[in-house]
């Protein structure tokens, strides 16, 4: 005997989970709130996603995939490398779009040391962001646009730190001008 067919879209539910976890945080989000926001029953929530922690893991993976795609789009666009890096930093920090900070950074700050995926998924995202910045810096150095005497790995780490710091500042309510200064300083170091 086959079970009843699902009356909801799993992927849309994960997208909605990204939004609620990002907005409220993991600890402040109850399973009932998740079920309500996803417009499913609590039983369906657990039958489909197994646990709140598993749904967080899926949400972090979804967020990471989307951020990496957006980052690739920014860094592969036409124009000077420095401008593309500046634009990528602003996109990653959410400047002018929202004041929630980065979902991955927020999750690490909230859950580091208490949940494996809440730490490992963001760490993988941060590693890939840093590598994308390093690759862009190398291209900029090869084209002569960026200083060739700088270590691309060090500069990429500084860019990652700047965007993570800007994300925390954004979450704390810092104004857009301050966030722009942080990121402009990081780009100027190139």
From TrEMBL:
Gene3D superfamilies: Homeodomain-like, Tetracycline Repressor, domain 2. The keyword Magnesium does not apply. It comes from the Bacteria. Residues 7-67 form the HTH tetR-type domain. Residues 30-49 bind DNA. Keywords: DNA-binding, Transcription, Transcription regulation. It holds the Pfam family TetR_C_13. This is TetR/AcrR family transcriptional regulator. The lineage of its organism: Bacteria, Bacillati, Actinomycetota, Actinomycetes, Pseudonocardiales.
């Amino acid at each position: 005997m086959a079970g009843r067919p699902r009356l909801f879209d799993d992927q849309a539910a994960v997208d909605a989970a990204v939004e609620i976890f990002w907005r409220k945080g993991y600890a402040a989000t109850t399973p009932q709130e998740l079920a309500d926001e996803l417009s499913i029953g609590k039983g369906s929530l657990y039958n489909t996603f197994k646990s709140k922690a598993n749904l967080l893991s899926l949400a972090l993976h979804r967020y990471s995939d989307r951020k990496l795609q957006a980052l690739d789009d920014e860094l592969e666009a036409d124009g000077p490398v420095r401008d593309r890096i500046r634009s990528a930093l602003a996109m990653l920090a959410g400047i002018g779009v929202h004041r929630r900070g980065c979902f991955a950074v927020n999750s690490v700050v909230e859950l580091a040391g208490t949940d494996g995926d809440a730490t490992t998924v963001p760490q993988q995202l941060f590693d890939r962001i840093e590598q994308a910045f390093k690759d862009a810096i190398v291209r900029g150095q090869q084209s002569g646009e960026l200083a060739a005497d700088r270590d691309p790995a060090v500069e990429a780490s500084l860019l990652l730190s700047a965007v993570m710091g800007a994300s925390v500042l954004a979450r704390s309510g810092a104004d857009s001008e301050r966030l722009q200064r942080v990121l402009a300083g990081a780009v100027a170091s190139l």
